[in-house]
Amino acid sequence: MLSGRRPSLQVSTSGTGAIEGLLSSQDYKEFSSNGFDATQYANRVIQAPADSPFHGMDIATALAKLNFGIEHLNKHIHDQVASHYEDLLQQVTGLSHIEEVLATVKIGLGSLNGSFDRVREKIVDPYQQMRDKSVQLDRIQRTAEVLRRIIRFMYLLRRLELLMPGGERELPKAALTVSEMDAIIADEDLQGIAIIESESDLVAQAKERITTEGEQLLLRGLSAQTADIASGLQVFFNLGQLASKTRQLVEQMLQSITKDIQAALDVVKLNKEIKEASLAGDSARRPGDTPFLGSSASASNGLWSRLERLMDSIFENANKIYQLEKVLGRKRDPITHVLFLDEVNKGINGDLLDYFWKGLSASLEREIRLATKASQFLLHAFQTGYPRLLRLVHNVFTRLSVVSGIDYSDETQRPDSLLILRTLSPFEGAYLSRSLSRILEPVNTAFPERPGPGVRPVPSRDDVDKIIRALSSEMEVAKFDAHLLKAVSKNGNKAIRMYAVKCEQLYGAEAHVQFSGTGPASQSQALVIEIINSLWWMQQSLLRLLEEFDKGASDDPLSDAAQGLSKTLQNIVERSFKQITREMENVLMKMHREDFASRHASPSRGPVESSTSQYVVEFATRIRWLHRELLSKLQCGKESREWIRALGQRVVDFFLRHASLIRPSNEVIGRLLAGDMTQLEFVLSQWFGAMGMKLERDLGDSYRALRTFRHLPFLDLDQVRDLSRSQTLPPLILLQHLLARSRPSIPSPMLLYGWSATQYSEWLDLHSTQEAMQLLDRCLDSYADDMKRRGDRSLCPEFNAAKEIVERNTKK
Q1: Where do the DSSP E strands lie in 479-636?
Q2: How far apart are CA 408 and CA 397, in angstroms?
Q3: What is the CA radius of gyration of the chain?
């Protein structure tokens, strides 16, 4: 059967293709479109537009063409029917079979509907019964719950009647009972029940009474700091009002403090009180004469008395807050074990103490700003009396630290204290500016811009004492607060630095001065000594001030000022004494121009003249003048002796350095040098004795080296070797002496390098002892090489002794 139907399908497919090709032709395409409209087509045939296939035709021709197309289509239809008549017959036979299938399906659907109806009858009826019973059960349960709550309400009502007469002892239980009754009354399911609504007024009255008594209990506990605080808090916790009541209590305290602030800063009322007191105290005053507020001492006293009372109020309320916070932090609900403080912090969205101090600081800042804006008297009083105002605040936190156990010291400042101190910061800047002016005033007075006749250009000790007293006075006022004290110390630092700069400027104008002369010291020379004395006295006074206030930390501004002052003093002293030293060295350098040989050979010179060189005489004259006119006027305590000791040590060392270079170094020259050294020692001894010093004690090794060197030209070589081992003389002096006494002569560094004595001395000042030993060793090597070139193998005995000293000290 399938094989018989396959050709018909092919024919059908080909026939369908032929029909589609026919309909898609130009003649039939328009009729096969879905949007074909016969009326529009007829109009087009009649009108025959240019784009129409009927253009140029008459109606008869167009109708003939249409009839031909119809006949052509009929012919194709006939051909299709004739070609597929077998398939058409099979389709007609299949229609009868489809009707049988449809009848069978209808019978099955009817059976299914019957089964569905039977199942529905078995399920729906029990479901309806169960639903009805469930609704009844729910209503019974809700009714039972309502009855249970009504019974509970009646029980609580009787319990409340028993608890209310119990007083404060039963107050927390009564609060818990009322709280539960409020919850029952607020239940929507119990609305309209007469027995509950009739008692709602009684419950409200009981709640109001419990709230009032609980508030009284809490306030009494806060005032007396007793266990009533915990009882009062338990009452409001049971009422569910702990957070709101605590916040309300804090707000009431803040409002009370705000009123106290406004009363304390009420200038009009203060002026009125002063007027009344003035009129009552002085009956002779005319009615129109009233004291001016800003110039009245009584006004200032009245203001500070008010501020003291204000701080007492702040302390009392803050103490209550701390006690409240302490109890809240310890108290827990006995049933839920909830910490009361956690509940309060949740209610205020933060910390209780922070909430109080932020509110207080905001009120204080606002009221002070408004009051000082409206009154110049208050502004002036707070700016000039800022330390007193700050001390009042400090006293509050000091008292709070005693009762609360919280450390409010300056080293561990807490945020709450910083909030209050920040409200006073606008007055701190003005006070510090005035304080700086008071400290700088004696500094400017001590350094007049145009000193008149007889006016000292350098501050005296009295001027320095005035500066220190001004600084000490400001620090004494501020010492109770570390921050303020540091700020005042910064002002003191500025004043001390200004003092040091002015002294340095004065010295800079006289830096070219020469410390030499024959008569009285010049004004410039005396000015340098006065500058040094003034700086030293300022340094000592400042150090005593630091000890008095126990301020020696490295970050302290005054310690920095003391260090800067010390550096300035040291710089001026070093520059001045360097100039003095240079002038003395220039005198001692004249020993190289001294003709020792001619002095010894000349019979015309007397014994006094032949025993002392001219440079020593000049040195003695210079030292005596320097001591009489300048150094004796140094008033710098131990430092003066230390500076003179260093100067004397340099003089002795410099003398030994150059005396050991004198050639030839023999007994004859040695006796002349010994006389010079004796005179030098005598002059130095007189100088040191006038300063309360001794050569042996204060010059130490340098003095012992001077006394040893006096005998050095008279010692043989073995004794010199022993002397080098004893280290009584510096090895450099011994080496130079050996080079000077050698025969044939070992070249000195001056001869080897073509230096002058001054250049060689400056080179020694700039290099270490080891480098100097190496330089002298090169002189020895040069001598040995020169002798070798000459073919002379016999070296002078001083060469080996000098080599031993070099090797011994080089190893060290």
Answers
A1: none
A2: 6
A3: 60
3-state DSSP assignment of residue 472? helix
Do 694 and 654 touch, CB atoms closer than 8 A?
no
Q: Which residues contact 318 (CB under 8 A, 6 or more apart)?
A: 356, 360, 396, 400
**How far is 425 from 285, CA to CA, in rounded Å?**
41
Q: Which residues pair with 332 in a beta bridge?
A: 339
Residue 734: Cβ within 10 Å count: 24
Selection from 318, 353, 344, 356 nearest residue 244 by Cα: 344
The three-class DSSP label of residue 332 is strand
Query: For residue 722, how far is the Cα from the chain centroid?
Result: 66
The CATH topology of domain 429-567 is Methane Monooxygenase Hydroxylase; Chain G, domain 1 (1.20.58)
> Residue 395 burial (CB < 10 Å; 0-12/13-18/19+)?
middle
Taking the CA of residue 598 as centre, how many other CA atoms within 13 Å lie in the half-sphere pointing to its CB?
4
Higher model confidence: residue 44 or residue 377? Answer: 377
Alpha-carbon distance of 222 to 607, in angstroms, equals: 105
H or E stretch including 151? helix 85-163
Neighbours of 809 (CB within 10 A): 20
DSSP per residue over 75-100, as a string?
Answer: HHHHHHHHHTHHHHHHHHHHHHHHHH
Token couple for 303: 């203001």
Provide the whole-model pTM.
0.70
What is d(CA 45, CA 367) in angstroms, rounded to the nearest whole number? 102
Cα–Cα dist 810/771, whole Å: 9
Between residues 545 and 47, the one the model is more confident about: 545
Q: What is the mean pLDDT of residues 622-632?
A: 91
What are the pLDDT digits (tens) for 421-467?
Answer: 888 888 999 999 999 999 999 999 988 876 655 556 888 899 999 99
What is the number of other CB atoms lying within 10 angstroms of the CB of residue 109? 10
* Integer Cα distance of 234 and 168 in angstroms: 12
Short-list 237, 257, 270, CA closest to 347: 237
Mean residue pLDDT across the chain:
83
753-798 pLDDT, tens digit per residue, is 999 999 999 999 999 989 999 999 999 999 999 888 888 778 888 8
| Residue 805: partners with Cβ closer than 8 Å, 6 or more residues away | 724, 731, 734, 735, 738
Tokens of 724: 């080098």
Q: Cα separation of 325 and 323, whole Å?
A: 5
- What are φ and ψ of residue 332, in 5° steps? -130, 150
Which of 464, 466, 459, 582 is closest to 531 using CA atoms? 459
What are the residue boundaries of the structural domains of the chain, listed by start?
2-83, 241-281+294-423, 429-567, 594-714, 718-812
Local structure of 527: helix, strand or coil: helix
Residue 409 has pLDDT above 70, yes or no: no
Residue 403 to residues 180, 271, 351, 418: CA-CA distances in angstroms? 38, 36, 20, 19
Beta bridge partners of residue 148, listed in sequence order: none
What is the Cα–Cα distance from 250 to 241, expressed in whole angstroms? 14
Q: Say which range, 21-30, 312-321, 513-522, 751-760, has the weakest mean pLDDT.
A: 21-30
Q: State mean pLDDT over 325-350.
A: 85
User: Which residues have a Cβ under 8 Å from the Cβ of 342 and sit 6 or more positions away?
Assistant: none
350: phi > 0 → left, psi -120 to 50 → alpha, else beta; which?
Answer: left
Cα 137 from Cα 687, distance rounded (Å) = 126
What angle is formed at CA 226 by the lines to CA 220 and CA 232, rounded to 5 degrees?
Answer: 55
- Phi, psi for residue 488 in degrees, rounded to 5: -65, -35
Structure-block tokens of residue 395: 């006293």
60 CB contacts (<8 Å, ≥6 apart)?
Answer: none
**CB-side exposure of 434: number of CA atoms within 13 Å?**
13
Mind listing the pLDDT tens digit for each residue in 545-602?
A: 988 887 655 468 888 999 999 999 999 999 999 999 999 999 999 998 887 766 655 5
